[in-house]
Amino acid sequence: MEVKARAPGKIILSGEHAVVHGSTAVASSIDLYTFVSLRIATPSDDQDSLKLQLKDMALEFSWPISRIREAFPESATVQSSMPTSCSMEAARAIAALVEEQNIPEAKFGLAPGISAFLWLYSSIQGYKPATVVVSSELPLGSGLGSSAAFCVALAAALLAFTDSVLVDVNHQGWLSFGVKDLDLVNKWAFEGEKMIHGKPSGIDNTVSTYGNIISFKSGNLTHMKSTMSLKMLITNTKVGRNTKALVAGVSERMLRHSDAMAFVFSAVDSISKELTAIIQSPTPDELSVTEKEAKIEELMEMNQGLLQSMGVSHATIETVLRTTLKYKLSSKLTGAGGGGCVLTLLPTLLSGTVVDKVIAELESCGFQCFTAGVGGKGVEISFVEPS
After folding, report:
1. In this structure, which of 223, 285, 308, 370 has its CB flanked by the most CB atoms within 10 Å?
2. 204 is an active site residue
């Protein structure tokens, strides 16, 4: 038996940066996924190793099970129902396992993700030989939650082969977990995120696990269900950014101009609250949808203006804004800024021809474009008979 899991990426609809200073932010899942397939070896397979295949990069890593057992002696008593943080001792053992793989220098940024894989696998499945295959529709390091989607999909696939969750292995097609089991997936994914990012907020893995839309303020998360179907054009500028430096820059601007920045953060908070009200209000007819989309466009434009005043825009982001504005479309950066991705709302009545023209123009600038639905399902699994 083989299990496949898929977990969605995420976007920040409003409130990035300001959320650090007490404002409300709104995040949503998008229907671009990371996929993980897990096949635990049977005695007839004559396999005595743990293999990790990164399909998109044509990379494979492999460890003899004897090395895994040696590195994690405590995994002899696997407690998949009790998410645990990686100890300093285990971290050192993982570092040695990763070092043995001779990761190409250009791909060394993958090392934290491989470390998270080893910790989650050994903690949930112990010493079983297996093959894990990963592929993704999400660009890495662009602010769309690719690492969280990886951790969520991996945790879901690993837990599906334990007694810690209740799943119907005979179900055909994609299957959602119950709320209690989703909580467990989310907690394990957060442990993986900690391996990758050190001190993650937990927002990315929460959105990827549960799907839909959440608002968050001062550590409190509120799950929402959208009453309307939003579609976004996501433009990846392909410009990497230093999130820590951007966050620090906003904080320094706050110290220099405390009164003005307090008004900026307050305005962002109001935008996020109005956005959540629009998203959740009933939508009885097409006219209401059009009116709501027009309001959301205005809020996106205002939020982008405030982000510019925080100093987190970038020349490439401004290029995307100018391009989409030519077609009377509204855009804003999503995430840390300084590059990364830009969101453009695609109204329901917008013709496909216009969308094609916008994408062609953006791609001619060297950008990468995706269209994605907003606020869909969270992590799902599917059982398949191995071919």
Report:
1. 370
2. yes
